Amino acid sequence: MNFLVDYNLDGYAPVFLGILAKNGWLDLLPINFVTFREVGLSMDSNDRILWCFAESNQMIILTANRNMKGKDSLEQVIREENTLASLPVVTISDIKRLDEFNYRERCVDCMIEIVLNLENYKGVGRLFIP
């Protein structure tokens, strides 16, 4: 499963990957963290473009700051476009706490839970972790 990492979490993608590797998950699950830059998305891409890109490429959006302001906000797009087959948008609840080892571990545990049980999470819209 590919997670499309919002620009505000770019620096944490290698950290999440390291936790997954350390705990042996990468031997069991194909999980990748892909940045906007790697897929050719601009940092200022609006949320509608981001969501449509992720859905068409079967990627789970991993973010910490998308909001509900405007017709192209992530929350508005989810309300308009989400279907029972749509992948969830995973939102880190408190980006400031990502500096805490235990919080990062809990976030990764939640991501694993989502990947392992993806069918149960399709169509839910947004998931806040941990």
Features:
6 helices
Largest sheet: 5 strands, parallel
Report the strand count. 5
What's the mean pLDDT score? Answer: 93
Residue fraction in strands? 15-25%
Q: List the total number of helices.
A: 6
* Largest sheet, spatial ordering of strands: 2-1-3-4-5
Helical content (DSSP H or I, runs of 4+): 40-55%
The shape, in one word, is globular
Rg over alpha carbons: 14 Å
H/E topology pattern: EHEHHEHEHHE
The separation of the N and C termini measures: 19 Å
- Residue runs with pLDDT of under 50 for 5 or more positions: none
Structural class: alpha/beta
Structure summary:
The protein is of the alpha/beta class. The protein contains six helices and five strands.
What does this structure look like?
This protein has helices spanning 13-22, 36-39, 47-56, 74-81, 101-116, 118-121, and strands at residues 2-5, 32-35, 59-63, 89-92, 126-129. Strand 1 (2-5), helix 1 (13-22) and strand 2 form a beta-alpha-beta unit. With 130 residues, it is an alpha/beta fold. 22% of the residues are buried. The two termini are 19 Å apart. Helix content is 40%, strand content 16%. The protein is globular and about 40 Å long. It has a 5-stranded parallel β-sheet with strand order 2-1-3-4-5, sandwiched between helices.
